[in-house]
Specification:
single chain, alpha+beta, 6 strands
Length: about 110
């Protein structure tokens, strides 16, 4: 089933100079492998194609059920240099949660 990450994960984001740092945390241990498989650097780069001019790096943090993404060249120079609305990348986590991925129906949260 295709769903938005917001239904199965949460995120935090911020800045490191001209790079945005986005942490994506699975809501359960069962969902982490699915998120790990589906949310690749290439998919994140495509999702943020209008924003990220550099590469996207991914770091796995399995003990926290998390992935950490560095979106290089995404802040227009960073907080002290940029005139863009979100020069510190605070909204990038929420933006990533809009990405839709395929998740087995049996793993979806019951509502």
């Amino acid at each position: 089933m295709r769903i938005a990450l917001s239904a199965i994960a949460h995120a935090r984001s911020g800045d490191k100079g001209d790079a945005s740092n986005v942490g994506l945390i699975a809501d359960s241990p069962e969902l982490y492998p699915v998120i790990r498989q589906e949310v690749t650097p290439e998919r994140v780069k495509e999702h943020f194609r209008r924003l990220v001019r550099g590469r996207v790096e991914r770091f796995e943090v399995p003990n926290l059920l998390a992935l950490n993404f560095i979106l290089h060249d995404s802040l227009g120079g960073g907080g002290t240099e940029s005139l863009i609305n979100d020069a510190q990348g605070k909204t990038h986590g929420q933006g990533l949660l809009e990405l839709e991925i395929e998740v087995p129906e049996a793993l979806l949260p019951r509502r």
